[in-house]
């Protein structure tokens, strides 16, 4: 494919007229920018308006160094490196500001929106040095033949597209899609979401600068618009029209719109922009996944090896082999408690949701947390799995305080958490989900996909019990509710936790599935020695499988005892009957 694309790049200028080749060279550089927007927005879900700023930085590095300092092969190459480094550092700083733990997606979009505006103001403020609003033209550059420039721009585009393609199909590329679909689940599997986003943003910034540098060196003109907000927004339109998250769609979107506008914007300056706007609205409504979805849809329907939806998958993960991971080093030793909670409290403003909770969990123990709706059970899970949630007290995992650690770092201490509502990645396959849950233990490859995944014995046991080991190539959206629950549990166990937090794992399951889950939980404690903390409303289920029960009421612990003690307690009966005593504060 890459060889064919390169052959086209080398042959095309021989057959096309000169004006079109000139227009295409600019469009090819812009298509490189579109790929970076697709990686950031299409694949990892960060709506960025600021990718043009990096294009502008690369373009101005070329123009400013050639105008004010010197020109020659070394200067040219030096300017290229300076442009890339400046863009990478800017992108890294913007990434840190945009994606620090807890930043909302809206926040990062606003920061990327401000970036090109700030850059243009800096260019204006640069006066004669930066050429202010008129920009810089006529600076020394290489006046090679258009055929040569076409080959340079085309080769850059093919190279970036190939690397991007390999990247999005790799282990790390799957993680980008997982982040786009369910950032929280990724964090609670120990994936460092913020760091991955910052790294991606930095690399895409540098690539955008390379494209801008080439664009400026070819056209011999730079203007503030090259780093402006308008180009940033246009690049989003190319990606949306072409097909977000497809790579090929944004390339054709950028080339198609730029070339057409070069022909039409002279004769129909206002009408052309209007046509693009209307086209954009129509495509968003009729083809939300862009024009590329027409091709991929037809390919899925009529192409070779087409699959039924239940067995197919959008991104083609290929078969994956399951292996048993070597026994981890996560067993809790000696008398150490896997989990010890002391004086834990949580407030939301003046509302006290949890107060003064203290208890410990032991290895091989199934500890159920029960209590009426609103008692604070889920909040307790949040306080254990995220160091930033609690407002008082301490939580220790195997003797280590979680302090203010973010969820992914708490996973590193040995806490695994499943959510009240099953939380998976719809367009990823079962195999992909399992592979990415091993990120914390096995890491992820940058340009390759591993053909196997090594899982600890408890996770393998669940896959076998639910039959998921025979559906590794199936997208998770086609799984039954019970299978989804099973997969989520297997994914959490793949992180090799010492303490497993389960929030209503049997909700919505049939009686048979509930019994199966009960057996699985028992084997996790008895065979594998895990400490399981379970929130459950089904008191019969709790009674059958628990070693110990903690009862919460109005955010306080009213009882901590054996199953018999709790079941026979009058206090618990009155709490559940709604006549519960007001807990003294
Ligand atoms: N972010 C928040 N801001 C304000 N109040 C909150 C927040 N999260 C939870 N609460 C309140 O804290 C209380 C406990 O909620 P929590 O979800 O922990 O209860 P629960 O015992 O898990 O209930 P359920 O069994 O219905 O899931 C509720 O009154 C809830 O409204």
What is the compact description of this entry?
Its main location: membrane. The protein is an alpha/beta fold.
Structure description:
The chain is 56% helix and 12% strand. By secondary structure, it is of the alpha/beta class. The chain folds into three domains: 2-299, ABC transporter involved in vitamin B12 uptake, BtuC, CATH 1.10.3470; 332-414 and 497-585, 3-Layer(aba) Sandwich (Rossmann fold), CATH 3.40.50; 422-495, no CATH class. Helix 2 packs antiparallel against helix 10 (193-219), helix 4 packs antiparallel against helix 5 and helix 7 (146-169) crosses helix 8 (171-181).
Tag the structure with descriptive keywords.
585 residues, alpha/beta, ABC transporter involved in vitamin B12 uptake, BtuC, Rossmann fold, 3 domains, six-stranded mixed sheet, four-stranded antiparallel sheet, 14 strands, binds adenosine-5'-triphosphate
Q: What fold name goes in the CATH topology slot of the largest domain?
A: ABC transporter involved in vitamin B12 uptake, BtuC
Report the β-strand fraction as a percent range.
Answer: 5-15%
Q: CATH first level of the largest domain: which class?
A: Mainly Alpha
CATH architect. name of the largest domain? Orthogonal Bundle
The major β-sheet equals: 6 strands, mixed
Bound chemical compounds: adenosine-5'-triphosphate
Instruction: Estimate the helix proportion, in percent.
Output: 55-70%
Number of helical segments with 4 or more residues: 24
Strand pairing plus helix content: what structural class? alpha/beta
Strand line-up in the sheet with most strands: 9-11-12-6-13-14
Domain ABC transporter: 339-579
InterPro entries: AAA+_ATPase, ABC_AA/LPS_Transport, ABC_transp_permease, ABC_transporter-like_ATP-bd, LivM-like, P-loop_NTPase
Keywords: ATP-binding, Cell membrane, Membrane, Nucleotide-binding, Transmembrane, Transmembrane helix, Transport
Organism: Fulvimarina endophytica
